[in-house]
Amino acid sequence: MELDVHSLHPLEIRVLRHVSLGEDITNTRLMEELDYQTGHCNQAFSWLSAKSFIEETKREVSTWYEITDFGKKQSEIGTPAERIFALLKEDGPKTLPQLSELLSLEKSETGSAFGQLSKAKVCAMQEGNKAAVVSDSLPQQFLIGSGVLKKGLSGLLSEQDLSGEELAYMKKNSKKRGAANSPFKVIEREDITYRLTELGNQAKKALLEKHITGEELGSVTPAMLSSGSWKSGSFRPYSLNTPSARLIPGRRNPYGAYLQWVKDKLISLGFEEFDGPLVENEFWNGDALFMPQFHSARDIHDVYYIKNPSHARKIEEPYLSQVAKTHENGWNTGSRGWRYSFDHEFTRRQVMRSQGTVLSAKTLPKAKIPGKYFGVARCFRYDQVDATHGADFYQTEGIVLGEDVNLKTLLGLLKMFAEEVAGAEEVKYVPGYFPFTEPSIEVHIKHPVLGWFELGGSGIFRPEVTKAMGVDVPVLAWGLGIDRMALMHLGLNDLRELFSPDIESVRLRRSK
Asked: Minimal CA–CA distance to 363: which of 354, 374, 355?
């Protein structure tokens, strides 16, 4: 059977013509002898292997170490252990917090470095919990790190470049991933060796017989037309039966386009957009909304906690004091509060934002009166994922402030969202309960396949929320699931389709 060598890519042709049976073929060889880039080598090997023209004969994994920005900084100013030793030797005993502050180190870095110095009997803790130097010089083990850091500045280091002591240091101070706070990053490389097969050798002979070099021209450029060099060139053959390339014009993601459409609609109605971070503290996520700290919704099953840093440094005043008093005794809101002792440690705890109403609470102190505000907020809650629920979701959140706003105004806004934004034909409003609104209303819409489901909640903020933020006029508030509105608007039956990895499905879906 004659091999169709005309269909080979120039990268493949040049490799086949260059190598012989029994010779090792590696990335390094092709880069040196054919001036290939790493990507060229990988493409050629992939295509030739698929055609059985080459076969893998050896695979070796090698470990390399690359210095990080963190390591470069340590190389300039010294390791934490070196800096602590130098400071204590020059300025005398210091507490660990003082060392952290003076050297701009994280508490964990200070503790770890002092622990190493203490273990090596270079430093010790003295009276008043103060660290002090008890040795005149640093042992060799601490100087090894400086030497390795200097080596790392010259480029990648292999295990063969390091002595036994240096390699031991490297293994303790390098990470494969998340190396932002590590001096070195571990890089593992696979070096694969290939050899030409008998079939590949036949393809090589066919290329030589047909005088195919891999240098044939694939297209005519303006420069070639201008110089006339195309006249003496040799062109690659073309098959008229080859299907043309598929044209895929760019198109916005349907759900992304829908979110932007909702924003544009609200802005056209005079609303101002607000936004905020995904990580919030318990104060804004619940306390500022008059949600008691013992409320069941604030349990670990509904909120994701942040591990590090676990707590915010401080909460803005006077809002912290006013909210705390409102929870404890009602402050000057006319309420009796929740009658418990407000936990100032709990309120600083960091969580993933669980509701968009956080943004409304943070907007109240700086809001104009009268004023209209909205946001599209990504929220996170522990939930069973199904057709109408997700572990993370988007809400459209908003507030309207003014002397003349009332429940009728709120119902008009909810009607707009349900009918115009979601496109629902059947809508109902039912009484609801939220710790921060009174009265409270839930909006339900009917999906043609999924049936009735809740779109979200709304109401008029209680004085316990508004007065603690310095606002003394009625405030309408709503938090509606924009993912669920998109189900109706885009004609879908499952929330998960909004985030489908099936690109063809996404391309076919269009916003109405």
From this structure: 374
Helix (H) or strand (E) holding 168: helix 164-172
- The helix (H) or strand (E) run that includes residue 31 is helix 27-33
Sheet with 371-380: list strands edge to edge: 272-273, 371-380, 392-401, 475-481, 451-461, 437-447, 427-431
Q: With contact defined as beta carbons under 8 Å apart, do 99 and 110 qualify?
A: yes
- Token pair of 185, please? 């990053």
pLDDT computed for residue 509 by the predictor: 60
DSSP annotation string for 245-277: PPP------HHHHHHHHHHHHHHHTTPEE----
Residue 245 tokens, joined: 């390339």
> What per-residue confidence (pLDDT) applies to 47?
93
The pair of structure tokens assigned to 271 is: 């609303």
Distance CA 118, CA 125 (A): 8
Angle 38-50/10-18 helices, nearest 10 degrees?
80
What is the arithmetic mean of pLDDT over 397-409? 94
Please determine, looking at this structure, whether the domain spanning 257-508 carries the CATH number 3.30.930.10.
yes
C-beta of residue 131 within 8 angstroms of C-beta of residue 145: no
Six-digit token string for 138: 């640093």
pLDDT digits (tens, 9 = 90+) for 62-92: 888 888 888 888 888 888 888 898 898 888 9
CA distance 512 to 306: 39
Q: Assign 3-state DSSP to the chain and report helix, strand, coil percentages, each to 5.
A: 40, 20, 35
Note if the pTM is more than 0.85. Answer: no
Q: Which of 14-28, 330-344, 373-387 has the lowest mean pLDDT?
A: 373-387
Q: Which residues of 405-444 are buried (b: 16+ CB within 10 A; e: fewer)?
A: beeeebeebbeebbeebbbbeebeeeebebbbbeebbbbb
Residue 210: the pLDDT is 86
Whether residue 354 contacts residue 397, with contact meaning beta carbons closer than 8 Å, is answered with no
For the chain, the structural domain boundaries read 67-188, 257-508
- Phi and psi torsions of 410, nearest 5°: -65, -45
Question: Running DSSP on this structure, what letter comes out for residue 349?
Answer: B
- Phi, psi (rounded to 5 degrees) for 201: -65, -35
Of the listed ranges 3-17, 231-245, 259-273, 368-382, the least confidently predicted one is: 231-245
**Ramachandran bin of 224, using left for φ above 0, alpha for ψ from -120 to 50, beta for the remaining angles:** alpha
Top CATH class, 67-188: mainly alpha
Contact 125, 99 (CB under 8 A): no
Measured distance CA(362)–CA(356) in Å, rounded: 11
Q: In a 10 Å sphere around its CB, with 0-12 CB exposed, 13-18 middle and 19+ buried, how is residue 358 labelled?
A: buried
Q: Is 419 helix (H, G, I), strand (E, B) or coil?
A: helix
Strand partners, 473: none
